[in-house]
Amino acid sequence: MDFHKLSKLFYKKRLIFATSARYFNNLNFVEKKDNLSFELISSNNFHKIASIYESSENDPKLKILKNRLNRPDIWKGVIANLDKKPVGCHWILLPSKEKILYDSFEISNKAALFCGVFVNPNYRGKRIYNSMQQFAYNMWITDFPDRNIITIVENENKSSLKSNFRIGLEVTGVNHLFKFFWKKIFFQSITHLIIKFRSGMYYLRKKW
Predict the structure, then answer these.
(1) The whole model's pTM is what?
(2) Helical H runs in 12-152?
(3) Nearest-5° Cα angle at 42, 38 to 45
(4) Exposure b/e, 168-198, CB count within 10 A at least 16 = b
């Protein structure tokens, strides 16, 4: 039995990236492809999400995503189209009045979480993820620059980690998630998720 694969059923290590508007100009993105375009997710184009996942809108996972459209105050979504074909999506969570627990991680209303990024397997390796990041970060600096941006990446997701490092993001915390019979029962973070900025320190409060 592969112990490494077995351990993944009970434990996940996740790296946390965070940045603020003052460092936006330090981010480095690849040049956008001319044949790549973006559109915001809505009820009118949600069928493209099913195409990206090569699934049906009746898929339970896609129903969860579709429910996000009922909360446009806290959820923003982006579709990436390559040669007019939907190939990727990117979600942004913007807590409003209260903190939100997302995937066992608490997000305050002073932050925005970049999450749910997915590129169809047939189109990976074409820097689409990086281009979606650029579009999302431009949305941030234009629409909600007062929030700090947080991205959480599993330690095993080498391609996403590589992309984050490539644009200039730094690991600012480590999150440990423990599961029992596929239920998330305990999570904690070392260093209290201290996010270091040159002007001082910004603390992400977290329950455990």
Answers:
(1) 0.82
(2) 47-53, 60-67, 128-143
(3) 70
(4) ebeebbebebebeeeeeeebebeeebebeee
Phi–psi pair at 204, nearest 5 degrees: -95, 115
pLDDT tens digits, one per residue of 101-150 = 888 888 999 999 999 999 999 999 888 999 999 999 999 999 999 999 99
194, β-bridge pairs = 203
Give the containing element (helix H, strand E) for 162: helix 158-167
Close Cβ partners of 159 (under 8 Å, ≥ 6 residues apart): 124, 129
Strand partners for 62: none
Give how far the C-alpha of residue 187 lies from the chain's centroid of Cα atoms, to the nearest Å.
Answer: 18
* CA separation for the pair 154, 150 (Å, rounded): 13
**Amino acid identity, position 72:** P
